[in-house]
Please model this.
Amino acid sequence: MNQPRKKAALPRRILKKLLGCLAAILLFFIVIAVISQLTGNALKSSQLYKLAVTRVKMHPAVVEAVGLPMRDGWFVKGGIKGKGSSGQAKLIFPISGPKGRAIVYVQAKKSAGKWTYSTLQVNIRDKDTKIDLLQPVEP
Model:
């Protein structure tokens, strides 16, 4: 006579619940990653971000510290508020090159359609170096 295995059913139910929980947690993190990526892509396509990256990549002190070719990172933190010809923004994004990595800090206001930076600074990682891109470049 075959008797049903009741002991084996309990671990199977627990395993199914654990797999269900793990799947829910994984789905949650995937949704967060997609939202972050979409937000970052929107910021990366902004005029302010593009101008900041151009200035960073052209600055001699940043080129010396990070090296060429220089790449901007995937994730952009911060935001841009306002529409049309006025607004304000705070952005933080990483850059990297063959000599090192850095974090770029941007703070700006837009008036009459033109962005004016109040902060455009590059902090070189693993060094105590801060490069203020708003200061004139010494020859």
User: Anything to note?
Assistant: Residues 122 and 131 are 5 Å apart (CA to CA). The domain at 46-132 is CATH 3.10.450.320 (Nuclear Transport Factor 2; Chain: A,).
